[in-house]
Each structure stands twice: as C-alpha cells, then as structure tokens.
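Page 47, continued from p. 46.
Same chain as before, 684 aa.
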Amino acid sequence: MHNGDLVGVQTRSGPRLALVTDLHGSKAAVLVGFEAKPERLPLRDLDLISPLPPGAGPAASLGALPWQFSAAALTAATPSLRDLAAAWLLLEGEDGPMALDALVELLAPEATALALAACWLLLPQQDFFRWRQGQVQRRSRDDLHQLRRDRRKLVLRESRRQLWYGLLAARQPLGPEQLAAAQPEQRAELETLQTLALGEDAGPPGPELRQALHAAGCGPSSGDIRRLLSDLGLWDAHRLPSLAGTTWSAGFSPELLALAEDLAARSDDAWPGDEERVDLTGLKTVTIDDADTREIDDALSLEPNGEAGWRIWVHVADPGRLVAVGSPLDQEALRRASSLYLAGGSVPMFPPALSEGPFSLRQGQRSAAWSLAVELDGDGAVASHNLQRSWIRPHYRLTYEDADELIELAPPPDAELAVLEGLLQRRRQWRQAQGALQMDQSEGRIRQQDGRPELEVVEPSVSRLLVAEAMILAGAVVGSWGAESGLPLPYRGQPDCTLPPEAELLALPPGPVRHATLRKGLSRGLTTAQPASHFSLGLAAYVQITSPIRRYGDLIAQRQLAAQAAGEPVTPAEELAVLLDQLDHALRQGIQISRDDQRHWQQVWFEAHQQESIEGLFLRWLKPQDGLALVRLDALAMDLPVVVRESCEPGEALVVKVREVDSFADLLRLSGQRGTGPRGLGPA
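Result:
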C-alpha cells in the first residue's frame, strides 16, 4: 500500500471505504468514509481496492480527484444480485481464489475504481462469493445451500426469541405448551432467573436477557425478578429463598419414610428396657397444647403424697425407645437439629408417622415416657425428685383454653390443675427470689392460612404460664442432678448480665417498655457440655429436656441419663461439645429461616393493611442517628423497627403507618409520629 490508495475497512457499522494518508510501520493513517474521519489502523485490517492512479496526487476525500466518488454513484455502480448469480453460474468449476478486478470484469463494462469499490462493499451482503485474505472466492453449491439453511434457522430462532420475549413482557402465566416449546437457551435463561431470584450469584444476565427484562419492566434486583417469575407462574409468591437447598426443603426420603412406617407398625412390640419401665398409667395425666399441635411431647400429673403434700409429675416422650443412635432416622434428626416452625405450620424433625404417632403422648394411648417426680418445699425449692422411664396413659388432651377454664372453675372432679397451678406459682416466686426475670406479655405472630396472612396473638394465660413453669422445673432438676453427678449434658446457660439500676427500671412504664430495656441488657444464651448458670431463669444449672420429638439436644440429654442409669459409658464432655457445635449450625440456620418466614408474612400482612394506622408505644432507640426506634404495635403484639423523626421517650404513644412495603423485595418500612391515634387499627 502507498499514500493515496483506496482501501476498504470493516467497521462495527459495516464495510467502509477509506484513503491512505500515511504509513507508519505496521499501521496506516486513513480517512474513513465520505466524512473523511481520520483514524490509525493496522495494515492487516485494510483491504487494497485500487492503488492511486499514476500521476495523481493523494486526495483529501473520496469526493475529490482522482476518485470523485458519491453515494449515488456507488449505488448506481453496485451489481445486482441477478448479475452476481449469473457470474456464480459462469464460474462453476472454478472454485479457486480470484482477484477482485477479475470478478468485476464479469459484472461491469470496465473494472474502474468505482466499480471495484461498489463490488467490495456488496460482498458482505450476498451469499455467492466471499472475501478472504484480499481475494474473492466462489462458494460451492453445498456451501451456498448450508449458508441459506443456517440463515433460515437464524431467522426462525430470532422469531422464536421475539415471541418468547413477548411472553415475558406480557407477564402472564406460562402454560405447559409454552414451556414445552421453549428452546434450550430460553430454558437456561429461566434457570438463571430462578437462581437470581434466590439471591444467589449467577453472574450478570446476558445482553439479550437484560433487554428482555427491560421490555418486561423488570429491574435487576432479586425482588423484581421474583415478582416477574411469580407473574409468569414460575415462582411461588411465598417461596422462602433461605429455605431452598436445606435439609428441611428436601423432605424425608422414601427410604426414611419407609423406616418410620416400619417402626410405627412395630411400636407395640416389646423393645429392650420395656420390662424395667414403671407403670404410671393409673396416674391422672393430661396434656396441654395448642389445638393444632400434632407432636405432643410432654404431659403433667399431680399425685397426693400424704402429709408431704403433693408430688408433681412431668412426663416427657421417649423417642429413643425406637430410634437407635446412629441409625438413618437418628442421623436425619441430627442434621435437622430441631423441628422448623413456619407461618404455615411446622416441618418436623422426625417423620410424622413417628412424631405424630407412637412418639406422641396421645390421649388414651399407652405411651413410653421419661417421668420426673418432684416435691417442693414451702418456699418452692425442690425438696426431692426422682426420674425414671415409665408407661403413661394421658386421660385428657386439653387446649390452653380448656386448661384455663379448669383452673378458674376448679370443679371437684378435676381440681388437680388448680392445685398444680398454685404449686407452680410458688415455684415461680422462688425463682424470682433467685434473680429470675419475669417478662410475660402477649406475643403476636402472623400465621398463614390458605395463602392468606392471619394475625395470632398469644396471651400469657394462666395455663401457658403453668406449662412453661413445669418445663423449667424439669430442666432445673435435670440440670442440678447433672451438675452434682458430673454428667455431661447439653446445659443451657446465660452469662450474668448487668441490668439498669432498679430505680431506673421502676421509672419506666411496666410491661413492654420495661421488658425492652431488660432484654437489651441480656446476653445470648449458650449450650455447653459443662454446667452453667442461667441468669434470666435464676437457675444454677438448666437443661432443656421436655421436647425430644422436636429438639435433638433434648434427645441427647435423655440418652446420657439412660446410659448413666444403666451403668453404661456416657458420651464424654469433649465428644459432646463437638456434637453440640454440629447442632448449633443447624439450629442457627433453622432460627434464621423461621425469622425470614415470619418477616415475609408480616410484609404480606402489611401489604393488605397499607392504608391503616396502628397505635404504637415507643420502647427505645435502635439507631438514633437514623431515627430508627423499636416500637410496640399494640394491636399486633409485636415489637418492630419504625422510623421516628421526632424526639421521643420510652412509653410515648405513636401512630404508625406503612411507609413502604414489598414482600417480593423483602422490604418493610414503617414510620411513626407522636399522637394518640386510633385504638388498634383504623384508616390512615
């Protein structure tokens, strides 16, 4: 190439003509197009079309001498596709490369620079010939057919893609036939969207998918994508991302379900140790639970004890009778660590055939249990206790409402509950004297019923306090026994905490405001293999023991007690500590999933009540610099973060309104301002 030569260059917008103005080693300075845009390009990117005519000087543009090109002239000099087809037929059998001017001589009266330029510009737009390494090559008949087939496939693929993107943009549920017709790349796009909806990193969407999302009015956030997939019928609006891929989401395998069914069918057979169980089926035993509880793992009895007064019995289900350590069912329960509690119900630790069957302490059924007998002295301290494996037969299954009524009325045939309530009140007062904190208040949660959010407020009724105190009593007795005998158990402790001075607490309104201040000063509970005091319960040692169907740690405690009673080796503290660490991860994961689920249903509830205002009570500041406060919403019996832009003191009344809520985006923002507001819920 030389200065002034006419060359061609491929650009993003297509082939362009250019003039060489200077050469610098492997690069050339050129003027591109009719606008003579100066650029510096590698020589390998330039195709020589026509050298500068002899005696002519370099031109400053394509329109100047010696070229004198114009857009109209180039169009007029462009060969027709009919002429190209005729040249292709004429050259049949001559498939070797040829110079550009040789082809132009077949297409034009003369191979002028204009004709050469027009032909070079046309080559990328036709199928008969291709330009390769500065020469023209005739395509074979097979190549031509394949090229055209590929082009038809490309057109068909693009047509299907546009149809697909139209379906996405319509945001209507996709039917089975539409999903079946989706191409592999479209199914891959849906998988990418599902991954992004879960909040996982799938890399940035490709340009075509980004364009489709834009056409569908969908932003790049996981919440936006979840809403789009929901509109398309490909995402459950209440699907919980944090639950995906966990052991609870997979359910029980068919093999585990079969094992559970087999054990349930053989539960009435004789099992090792059954002959040593004490028969307590004659005791008048009751269970007290919510009406929808299906896993009943504790029961209560009260037995006269002559002059000593009364003997309190706490009975606990014994799943270890049927499930052996290290068995597949035991390993699955260990992986889960506990039952999972969601707004729509619980996901059990054991298959329902067992957890709702022979494990449960069912009314009228002889059930295997651990039974703890406790006698209290006049102050409520434990005077004596005895723990043994037993058979029991619950006489009544009571709801909390049933139990409240029996305690209140104390009918002569069924006065035991009222007596038991008095005994456990004494025990509760004893713990208070040891420093226990009493923070009983109503607690609200959102339940899910047929896809609809329903508010449930649980009041600290007499029967609920009775059951709670009985379970704490059992844990205290076992904890004390374990500490005295040096038995490694999953001790639940809470380090000592520094609370505000009593005068400061008494200056606060009683109830939620005072409780919020107390909770702020409490340390997180810990589970260790060594005895540890529990600050807020007022106990020197405490072991959770009363829910072995729903908490694996309780089952561990039962097994340690059983080994000790039988004179067999117990799990050493070091090994138990490793096992508790393994449980801790699953427990934390389960707690987080439950919180995520409850937060989601709170958002769904607020979406249905966006126009309402709620009476609130200022509890304390969370982030005063951001105006974020903890507020008690009376009608919901919940403590939630609320943006408050005013100076407030604990106990001040607020009116809380929904500022922004989006359950797909996991977003809830509440704002509050001082004022008496309506009682409960009302129009905003």
